[in-house]
Amino acid sequence: MEHAIVLHSIVPVRTDARESAEQSTQLLFGETCRIIGVLSRFYRICNESDGEEGYVDCKMITLMADAEYEAYKTALDASKARVMLPMTYAVSSNNGQTIPLTMGTRLANYHEGMFEVLGVTFRIDSAAVAEQPLLLTQDNLMQVTRFLINTPYLWGGKNALGMDCSGMTQTVMSLFGFNLPRNASQQVHCGKEVKSLNDAQAGDQVFFDHADPDDKDCEPNNSKADTRISHVGLLLDNTRVIHCSGRVKIERISERGIYGQEQQQFTHHLAAIRRLD
Asked: Would you state the pLDDT for residue 214?
């Protein structure tokens, strides 16, 4: 089985083996993937961090020898260090070139502002790195997410220059030690159910379905709602949610759903609340 590593800041993963195909997700610097197949100049890959499959341009990832892969995976699995700022730069000790790294990027062999990938050492500002998972508190969640406010919505995106709703939750929660699957419809199966907003706390995930918010026959926490999940956000408390819809923003939430300040109406119907543990 062949493996590859990402040595670019961000690599688009597409739904088909075409440059014009829709982006379904992204790979970040240092992520590894399995090569499932080859079609023209595209690899079909499986991202090892979340299991998502898709197509990437062959020149955008670097194949690894078995020994390289095993050594790197051992180092990566042992490391808890991640970039916690929306964007920072790493400097190569080989040639002095810089590479931008985005929030959530994992750093192998990290120690005191240095990390190593395939024998190349990089310098990085230690203030931009969380060496261990952050404690999931309201203050820490506010500190992390405030940098993402007004990040534009990008289908399949999971970085501070463009992200979708589940890309935001996956990236943010990775800083707190949670390895979420890629999509909202998958994330809703993680953790445990929270019965109502009255019982909710900062960091709980809130999920929304396609139901009409004006339909009074709709129950906010229907156990069957996970088959219809279309949106996800994170609670800052039991009245405010941060989510990416058009852009990353903070809005009011009730048992009915999200009330859009710009639209002056409910825009998303609450379907489920989940707490990671």
From this structure: 47
Bridge partner list, 25: 13
State how far the Cα of 104 lies from the Cα of 248, in Å rounded to an integer.
16
Predicted local distance difference test score (pLDDT) of residue 1: 83
What is the torsion angle, in degrees rounded to the nearest 10, for the CA atoms of residue 62, residue 11, residue 9 and residue 67? -30
With tokens 């993680």, the residue in question is 190
Same domain, 190 and 143: yes
- Measured CA to CA, the distance from residue 35 to residue 180 in angstroms comes to 22
Question: What is the rounded distance in angstroms from the CA atom of residue 77 to the CA atom of residue 106?
Answer: 10
* CATH code of 58's domain: 2.30.30.40
pLDDT at 228: 83
| Within a domain: 73 | no
Q: Would you state the pLDDT for residue 215? A: 41
Q: Which residues of the chain have pLDDT under 50?
A: 212-226
Three-class DSSP labels, 160-183: CCEECHHHHHHHHHHCCCCCCCCC
Same-domain status, 144 and 126 = no
Please tell me whether residues 164 and 257 are part of one structural domain: yes
What's the structural domain count of the chain? 3
Is the domain of 249 the same as that of 149? yes
Q: CA nearest 32: which of 126, 65, 42, 24? A: 65
Calpha distance 171→173 (Å, rounded): 6
Its domain, for residue 213, covers 138-275
Cβ proximity of 64 and 72 under 8 Å? yes
- Using CA atoms, how far apart are residues 4 and 59, in angstroms rounded to an integer? 11
- Residue written as tokens 């956000």? 233
Q: CA-to-CA distance for 70 and 111, rounded, in angstroms?
A: 20
State the pLDDT at residue 210. Answer: 64
Distance, C-alpha 37 to centroid of its chain: 25
